[in-house]
Amino acid sequence: MATQVNMPKLGLSMKEGIVGKWFKQEGDAVKQGEALLEIMTDKITNKVDAPADGILLKIVADKKAKLPIGGLIGIIGQAGEDIGDLLKAAAAPSGAKAAVPAAAAVKARPATVSVAAGGRVKISPNARKLAEENGIDYTLIAGTGPEGRITREDVEQFMSQAPADERPVREVIAYEGMRRAIGDNMANSWAVAPKVTHHVSVDLSALQALRATLNSDVKDTEKISVTDILVKAVARALERHPRINATLCGEEIKVLSEINIGVAIALPEGLVVPVVKQANGKALAEVSKEIKDFAKRAKKNKLEPDEMNGGTFTVTNLGGYGSVDYFTPIINQPESAILGVGRTVETPVVAGGQIVIRPMLALSLAFDHRVIDGAPAAEFLSTLLKLIAQPHKIFI
């Protein structure tokens, strides 16, 4: 008996999904639990496993098809099995909505170019001048004027449809799925939130010493990272400055009771931000375990959409690349603030009247000025700096 492959519900808020890359072709043998295809939502790209052993008899929804939850994507069965009834059901009006290639929306130009006696192309002087100024071969342009004469408008139309960049292309990456979700979210945040960024550096000596002590007798897989401690420190600082843990909803600024810290994780194809829920109430080891689990599953496209919802503040760490000090991270809407973590650099500083070398960590706090003013943001940052400089207080 044939087995349907249906659009899965990948989160409580998911209503539809977009078919991504298929890992199998029609006629291929598949095994239950084997990765079959990718499904894209507005937040993540997730792999869907085959629900049964058999042959992939039919790919009902190809790449870029958009389906509601439960919509038929494909059919697995035995060779020669009759799947006509299932295919009829898939053809119903509520089925997949195929994406329309952008090129299809471009208005077609007339198919012929008018040539006068003697082989001369009919073109107005203004049109000829515009074409020559822009290095355009006007013999390729079809005219819409009297007797097929090329007008200035025809040249302008041709220019608007010509490729903007003719340089050799090494790779074409589709602007869809995770990449488009990131782009749309970042563009929206940049457009709606008047942001301000406070930059500061802090001595990381004490935090590094604490981390070394915590990691002295544990397995490599259980070692605490700087990010783990910073997430816990941010959560404690938000407890003392709750108005930083807020969101703008229409005409109201809501100060949130839960402290849920998003942790940005970079992937080859983009960025995901899973959330450590109620981070202030969790032990450091538990926070560390969650972040490690998020990172591991993110690389396999196994994060659930609900794991990336509900954040109230985000931490994004670029320090590991060793190339970035201060930067302006984009706020993860609908949150109101984000902490950017740069690299740690051995730097000469004055301590106790002496010049000493200390590991200085670069921090950048970006915040939505509609919700948070500069002074409260500075107060929050001051508390965070004290916790980093005296990390034992994170646990008091």
TrEMBL record:
Signal peptide bounds: none
GO MF term (any one): acetyltransferase activity
Transferase is among the record's keywords: yes
Residue ranges of domain Peripheral subunit-binding (PSBD) in the record: 122-159
EC class of the enzyme, as a word: transferase
Annotated coiled-coil segments of the chain: none
One of the Pfam families matching this protein, by short name: E3_binding
Keyword list, A-Z: Acyltransferase, Lipoyl, Transferase
Ranges where the Lipoyl-binding domain occurs: 2-77
KW Transferase (keyword) present: yes
Cellular component GO terms held in the UniProt record: cytoplasm
Protein name listed in UniProt: Dihydrolipoamide acetyltransferase component of pyruvate dehydrogenase complex
Species: uncultured Sporomusa sp
